[in-house]
DNA sequence: TAGTCCATGTAAGATGTTACATGATTCA
DNA sequence: TGAATCATGTAACATCTTACATGGACTA
């Protein structure tokens, strides 16, 4: 029996952002609604319960803001366990399943890689990501080839769109790996 | 107050596939697990309850397979209301929100467009999709430009990956529109 | 002083997850 | 006959959605 994450993708997004900087629930909601992380919901009914769960699991710790602030604001920071758990999630091996069903979560892991994982983690991640992409794309091509004649035009186009998206992602991994090899880059 | 869909994305995927051909729950599970629609879960705990909900809403109708078959198999087909509801969902206007948070659902709508919507629906959909993509991408570029100096390399790369994905999608819409204009295409 | 923003929360409900259960049929 | 596959389902649980609620502070 495989041990599963007991934290959702949203939970890990929260952990990453709180690790970057101590933040309140409201800060996190604003971050989601005003940056490219807008694909996460900024609804209070998602964020606040998720924060309570993380706190109950001992991954974050919250305290009401000190005297200076007028409004009651609860600021969170990661605990040691939170950092360990985030790193464990982040540096998990890249599975074919992630590529097929969880691309966003994979990119979230990578986005925080330089900040929170060890030095070699990013290129290591990119290489296995690249490998899984390269292994998966031919399956899509094969399906298209053997089914294109009995697919509608829009069905065919939709599948081609998916293939192109994966190919773009694959090209991206190659360029990204190159930037880590050109070690002067900063 | 905006009226919401009372059917999930999975529900609409099921409706589309059942409209294509009468299918059982098991057929649908196999379809999800063996085609590029693998991004949908093939778990019985998702599929069977979803089918029961669609049946209760009167969007599909199931009947046990006729004499010929040995195992009990419940085959579903769409009702008139199911077809109407699918078409309504499919031909909804493309919103910025869909582009940002619901790309997959948008592509699902398009995949079935030629089969179930009227003749002009596909190019109309593509043009408004293109418009929303073209409007959204500059926001991402702007964010990257003003934040790149205080982002980590992996954070920057992750954002660039997102931008490239949207640009690929935008190029795809243009080519797709062209195929509908070259009216000889079959 | 009325409206908006800050800030946190809860309640009800829908949907999905994993895991388990059941029984028939086909195949080695 | 035992294992795998066909075929449908449920139970317990986690998470998310929408909607509502509350109260302080700022601003026009």
Topology (SSEs and partners):
Two copies of one chain form a homodimer.
Chain A: H1 9-20, E1 23-24, H2 25-34, H3 44-56, E2 60-64, E3 74-78, H4 80-90, H5 96-101, H6 103-111, H7 113-116, H8 121-147, H9 153-181
Antiparallel strand pairs in A: 1-3, 2-3
Chain B binds a DNA duplex (28 and 28 nucleotides) through residues 4, 6, 8, 10-11, 24-26, 29, 41, 43-50, 52-53, 70-74.
Task: List its salient traits.
186 residues; homodimer; 3 strands; DNA-binding; 65% helix; mainly alpha; 9 helices
Overview of the structural elements:
The structure is a homodimer of 186-residue chains. In chain A, 65% of the residues lie in helices and 6% in strands. Chain A contains 9 helices and 3 strands; from the N terminus they run αβααββαααααα. Chain A has a 3-stranded antiparallel beta sheet with strand order 1-3-2. In chain A, helix 1 crosses helix 4 (80-90), helix 2 packs across helix 3 (44-56) and helix 8 (121-147) runs antiparallel to helix 9 (153-181). At the A-B interface, helix 6, helix 7, helix 8 and helix 9 of A face helix 6, helix 7, helix 8 and helix 9 of B. Chain B binds a DNA duplex (28 and 28 nucleotides) through helix 2 and helix 3.
């Amino acid at each position: 029996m495989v041990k599963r994450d007991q934290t959702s993708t949203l939970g890990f997004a929260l952990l990453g952002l709180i690790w970057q900087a101590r933040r309140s629930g409201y800060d996190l909601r604003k971050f989601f609604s005003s940056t490219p992380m807008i694909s996460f919901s900024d609804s209070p009914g998602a964020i606040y319960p998720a924060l309570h769960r993380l706190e109950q699991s001992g991954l974050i710790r919250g305290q009401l803001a000190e005297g200076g602030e007028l409004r009651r604001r609860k600021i969170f920071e990661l605990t040691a366990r939170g950092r360990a758990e985030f790193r464990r999630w982040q540096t998990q091996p890249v599975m074919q399943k992630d590529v097929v069903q969880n691309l966003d979560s994979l990119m979230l892991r990578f986005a925080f890689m330089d900040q929170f994982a060890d030095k070699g983690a990013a290129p290591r991640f990119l290489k296995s990501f690249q490998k899984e992409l390269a292994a998966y794309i031919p399956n899509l091509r094969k399906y298209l080839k053997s089914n294109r004649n009995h697919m509608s035009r829009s069905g065919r186009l939709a599948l081609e769109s998916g293939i192109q998206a994966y190919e773009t992602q694959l090209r991206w991994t190659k360029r990204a790996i190159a930037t880590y090899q050109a070690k002067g880059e900063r």
